[in-house]
Write a structure and sequence with these properties.
- The chain is an alpha+beta fold.
- The protein folds into 2 domains: 158 residues, Ribosomal Protein S5, domain 2, CATH 3.30.230; 105 residues, GHMP kinase, C-terminal domain (Alpha-Beta Plaits, 2-Layer Sandwich), CATH 3.30.70.
- The chain contains 9 helices and 10 strands.
- Strands 1, 2, 3, 4, 5, 6, 7, 8, 9 and 10 form a 10-stranded mixed sheet that branches.
- Bound molecules: 4-diphosphocytidyl-2-C-methyl-D-erythritol 2-phosphate and adenosine-5'-diphosphate (ADP).
- Adenosine-5'-diphosphate binds next to helix 1 and helix 2.
C-alpha cells in the first residue's frame, strides 16, 4: 500500500425523485425539471498523489469500460488542464453502483475525483469552478459536486438546494442497459409537462416522463415496476433502468425486500439531502 494513500472517498448514487420533460431546445437537448436526492449507497475511491503528473486507475470495471474512457481519469485530466498543476495521482475505484441504471455512478465518480484531487493537490478551485469543469463531463456532475439535494432545471445545471423527505428506498436494478440518447430520441416521449415553480414543488404531481416509454420498450423495467408498486409508491430514476419504491422506515423496506421474487435484484438505501461526499469533506 502506498503510504500517502488517502482512502474511502465516497461517490454516492442519486435518485431523480421526479423527472419532468418540459420541452426540446433547438440544439436537440431537452429542457428538464428534476429533483435530485442522494442515497447512502456509494462507490469508494482512494487516491495517492504523485509529483510526476501521471494518472493511473485501478478498477475491476476496466473489463467493461476502458480506463481511457473512464470518467474518473477524464475528470482528473480536466482538473490538471484547468489548473496547470504538475501533480498526478494513482486512483483505486471500488465499484458498487450498477452502471447505466440512472443512479449516476459515473457522474458521481467524476465529481468525487474533482473534489478529492482539488483538496489533495491543493489547487483551491471553488465549488462553482469544479462544477463548471464537471458539467463538461456530464449534466449530472454539478449536483454531486455541490453535495446538496436540489431542484434542477435546464439540462440539469441550474440547481436550487431543497429539503426533500429523507425516505428509505428499495431500489430494483433490472438487468438491462437503457440508452439515455435513445430515450430522448423517442418520437413518442412526452415533452410538454408544464414547468413547476419552486412554490408548488412539494405539492405537485411528481412523475417521470421517461418511465412509460422505457417500461413499454424494456419488459424488465415494466416487470420491476409492476411488482414494486404493489407495496409502495414507485418510480423510475433518470432514464432508467433502476426503479425505486418509497418507504417511511428501513424495516418496511426490508419486509418487502424479503419477498423479492427470483429474477429481480435490488438493494435498500436511505435518501439523504447532504451528500456523503460533502460529509467526508467536513470531517477532514
Ligand atoms: C436525464 C438524466 C437525469 O439525471 O438521466 P440519467 O443519465 O441520470 O439517466 C441526465 O441528466 C442525463 O444527463 P447525461 O448523462 O449527461 O446525458 P448524456 O448521456 O450526455 O446524454 C445522452 C444524449 O441524451 C440526449 N439528452 C440528454 C440530456 C438532456 N437534458 N437532453 C437530451 O436530449 C442528448 O441526445 C444526449 O446526447
Ligand atoms: N466511473 C464510471 N462509472 C460508471 N460508468 C462510467 C464510468 N466512467 C465511464 N462510464 C460510462 O458511463 C456510462 C453511464 O454510467 P452511469 O453513470 O453508471 O449511468 P447513469 O447515468 O445511467 O446512471 C456507463 O455505461 C459507462 O460506459
Amino acid at each position: 500500500m502506498t503510504s500517502n494513500r488517502s482512502t474511502a472517498w465516497p461517490a454516492p448514487a442519486k435518485l431523480n425523485l421526479f423527472l419532468h420533460v418540459n420541452g426540446r431546445r433547438v440544439d436537440g437537448y431537452h429542457e428538464l425539471q428534476t429533483l435530485f436526492q442522494f442515497i447512502d449507497y456509494c462507490d469508494s475511491l482512494d487516491f495517492a498523489v504523485n509529483d510526476s503528473g501521471t494518472l493511473t486507475l485501478h478498477s475491476e470495471m476496466e473489463a467493461v469500460v476502458a480506463n481511457s474512457d473512464n470518467l474518473i481519469l477524464k475528470a482528473a485530466k480536466s482538473l490538471q488542464d484547468y489548473t496547470g498543476t504538475h501533480q498526478g495521482a494513482e486512483i483505486w475505484l471500488d465499484k458498487k453502483l450498477p452502471m447505466g441504471g440512472g443512479i449516476g455512478g459515473g457522474s458521481s465518480d467524476a465529481a468525487t475525483t474533482l473534489v478529492a484531487l482539488n483538496h489533495l493537490w491543493n489547487t483551491q478551485l471553488s465549488q462553482d469552478e469544479l462544477a463548471k469543469i464537471g458539467l463538461a463531463l456530464g449534466a449530472d456532475v454539478p449536483v454531486f459536486i455541490n453535495g446538496l439535494a436540489a431542484f434542477a432545471e435546464g439540462v440539469g445545471e441550474k440547481l436550487i438546494p431543497v429539503e426533500a423527505p429523507e425516505n428509505w428506498y428499495l431500489i430494483l436494478t433490472p438487468d438491462v442497459h437503457v440508452s439515455t440518447a435513445e430515450v430522448f430520441n423517442d418520437p413518442l416521449l412526452p415533452r410538454d409537462t408544464p414547468k413547476l415553480s419552486m412554490d408548488d414543488l412539494m405539492s405537485s404531481d411528481w412523475h417521470n416522463d421517461c418511465q412509460p416509454r422505457v417500461a413499454e420498450r424494456y419488459p424488465q423495467v415494466a416487470k420491476a415496476l409492476a411488482w414494486l408498486i404493489e407495496y409502495a409508491p414507485s418510480r423510475m430514476t433518470g432514464t432508467g433502468a433502476c426503479v425505486f419504491g418509497i418507504f417511511d422506515t428501513r424495516q418496511q423496506a426490508e419486509q418487502v425486500f424479503a419477498k423479492l421474487p427470483a429474477g429481480l435484484c435490488g438493494f435498500i438505501a436511505k435518501g439523504t439531502n447532504k451528500s456523503p461526499l460533502a460529509l467526508r469533506l467536513t470531517q477532514r
